[in-house]
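Researcher: Here's a chain I'd like modeled. Treat it as a single chain, no partners, no ligands.
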Amino acid sequence: MRTDGEADTEAESALAFGRALLGASAEQPGTGAVALRHARLRVLGVPATVFFRADAGELDRRARTGQPPILRLGVLEALMGLPLGEPVPESALSERERCLLRAAPATAVSRQGGYVVRRAATPLRVELAVVESPHWHTALRRAGRFPPTCARAAIAGRRPKDETVAAAEADYYGIGLGTRGCGAEGSGTDGGGAHACGRTGCTGVHLLVPPAPARRRWTPVAWKLAETVLGASERRGLLASEASAARLASRPDA
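Model: Modeled as a single isolated chain. Structure tokens:
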């Protein structure tokens, strides 16, 4: 049985591993850039360390209007067919689109004079998801639950018997693969589960295959992932500070 200390150490190494994979983009952004956030969440049925960039303005809008996450794929597809903030005649929409838009949260769209306006936007952009499992094949399967619109990486608790086979399968699916232990001679863990190779900057994870770059396409699946991460973050009380900061910045005397 794992102790709380071991679980914390594994979470810290997953965070360090993810930052190393993201490289320079994980560093503090310059003026006008969107900060990279991270959280340990249960998403798509698996615990994962998720790296994302939040849209503070959209989070503030949702906080003010009380809009919940939108998790129906068909509704997101219908919303994507509308330009953001621009009126579209409802008569120009198909019956299916009108039906799906009626199922959207009331504050996601507005209606007036026979026109419909999309108010909802993607609340965040997922950059990387890192999942873990004792066996490399299970770790890859879990990472594969995330769409390729974000980078995906898996950490196996044990090194594969045949690293060539494991690396080839990970590379085929575009999923990064690492194993516990950095690969340095004599590396391992100390008695409390902490990594103890002693090398500066070591993440405690040996990289076998880097993840494929995210496919930067705006799709309903990518939007649903963002909504799913938002819902998981809200359940943990995260991201409230993002909305508050946007509200303060929008004040005339700010």
